[in-house]
Amino acid sequence: MYIVTAKEMYDIDQFSMDRAEMNGSMLMENAGREIAQRLSAMINFEQALCILVGSGNNGGDGFVIARTLLNMGYKVTVLQVVEDKKIVGHAAYHKRLFLKCDGIVKQPNKINDLLEGLDKEDVIVDAMVGIGVDGDLREPLHSLVNQINQLDNLVVSVDIPSGLPADEGVADFTAVQADHTFVIGAMKQSAFIQHTAPSYGKWECISIGFPQAAFKQLEMERKVWTEAAFQRTFPGRSEYDHKGDHGKGLVIGGSSNMPGALGLTTRAALRSGAGLVTAATTDSVIQRIASFCPEATFVTVPEINGHLKYGNDIDYEGFDAVAIGIGMGREDASRPIIRHAATAKIPLIIDGDGLTHLKADLGVLDEREEPVILTPHPGEMAMLLDISVKDVLMRPFHYAKRFATDHGVYVVLKGAFTIITDPNGKQAVNTTGNAGLAKGGSGDVLTGIILAMIMQKQSIFEALCNACFVHGKAADLLIQESHSQHDLLASDVIEGVSLVYRTCL
């Protein structure tokens, strides 16, 4: 499932018509019929539907939806919100078809006429403005959208809620707040941005026949990581495997006031499939977490005031990957450990306080040949880039890609929609997870799952995508079976990993 900008979607559409010789009216027919079929499963014949159509492809899709539902026996009213002269091309063709099927199109002349009677409709289908919106909506659409958003009707948007930007980075807009959106062809970036995603409501991406070549010619670099992708890429196990086949991981971190973080990462790595895990930390932390991680081994690191102190005591020989920074604290004495870890000739994951230490020494990233994975939340991403958190939240795809390609690293930008980016700029979005993960320790668990995954027989990018999928899916299954979003703990998520494996594999 691809994720596109508005320009990329236009290019895909144009390629399909010009190069693949797909008729535009046919594509519009496919879109409208697919949406009508899905919409019919959500409503009954007693409900009244008002389909609001505008110009362009969005309006044309609306006419097809109206005709299809009318022919199925539904009560359909079409309200055309633009002048006749703006209904052209394929949209005009489908309007004529609708009229020839005894459909009626109302064209109110005044804003009050547009608003009148909307509250008496059971379902409002929004096919007014598509991905081509530029700036805030003009009247009368601005007032119409505000009126729709005050109603209790079921609101379904076609492709994108009217008024919503398709791309990241737009702050000011007025948009329909849909209950459900049927996205056509490919997901739009704004479905995964914190301040625009809620406008979609629940979404479903529908295929209308665009050829794969249309996506490949753009060298598409953004996808949604789905359960099918997890199942396709997650490596199986042989009955002859032994613990060494599934990786020996090292976790470095912990401090006197944050011992649990290291315990969560260590246990999560073991639960997720790592063959062996060693925790390198202070003696006091070992004593406090050893019973929580009885399967782990431990290495003692010198300490000062309860924090790790660099002493060149950590030997990376024999390990397959290392995760560092978890619960480490921000004492200056701990910072050299990050640089020392960067000399290890194995994949390196830097998380938590390790990212803060890294900020003062970003040059170590450019010196490494082995994979580096950074796992920042938006605040840490902003810190690394010297920008505001608001900037990161407005353009997460852009900033994650910029940092990853500039420094040749993998970036796992955590959030409601976690974005995974590889050093070449390829990106995937994970959509599993829920608000129950908004708890201390959730990120530590994810780091442990990542450590286990990158030591299995899959690419680093696939491993990161699968780790994020498992982390979120564990929370989702736990909410369904035994927990709520209020009581879910990070330690619960670790135990939920087994649910994911049993359910999805």
Describe this protein's structure.
With 505 residues, the protein is an alpha/beta fold. It folds into two domains: 3-220, Rossmann fold, CATH 3.40.50.10260; 242-504, UDP-N-acetylmuramoyl-L-alanine:D-glutamate ligase. Helix content is 39%, strand content 17%. The chain is built from 19 helices and 21 strands. The protein has a ten-stranded mixed sheet, with helices on both faces. Strands 4-3-2-5-6-7-9 form a seven-stranded parallel sheet, with helices on one face. Helix 9 crosses helix 10 and helix 17 (442-454) crosses helix 19 (490-504). The relative contact order is 0.09. The model has no long low-confidence stretch (mean pLDDT 94). Keywords: ATP-binding, Isomerase, Lyase, Metal-binding, Multifunctional enzyme, NAD, NADP, Nucleotide-binding, Potassium. AMP binds at residues 414-418, 443. Its cofactor is Mg(2+); K(+). Residues 226-504 form the YjeF C-terminal domain. K(+) binds at residues 58, 126, 162.
Question: Key features?
Answer:
505 residues; alpha/beta; Rossmann fold; ten-stranded mixed sheet; seven-stranded parallel sheet; 21 strands; elongated
Give the helix/strand class.
alpha/beta
Q: From the alpha carbons, calculate the radius of gyration and give it in angstroms.
A: 26 Å
The appropriate CATH architecture of the largest domain is 3-Layer(aba) Sandwich
State the assembly state of the protein chains: single chain
Low-confidence stretches: none
Broad shape: elongated
How much is the average pLDDT?
94
Helix content: 25-40%
Strand order of the largest sheet: 10-21-20-19-18-17-16-11-12-13
Q: In percent, how much strand structure appears in the residues?
A: 15-25%
- Number of DSSP helices? 19
Give the termini distance in whole angstroms.
20 Å
CATH topology of the largest domain: UDP-N-acetylmuramoyl-L-alanine:D-glutamate ligase
User: In CATH's first tier, which class of the largest domain applies?
Assistant: Alpha Beta
In the CATH hierarchy, what is the superfamily of the largest domain? Ribokinase
Query: Into how many domains do the coordinates divide?
Result: 2
Number of strands: 21
The largest pleated sheet is described as: 10 strands, mixed
Subunit structure: Homotetramer.
Cofactor: Mg(2+); K(+)
Pfam families: Carb_kinase, YjeF_N
Organism: Oceanobacillus picturae
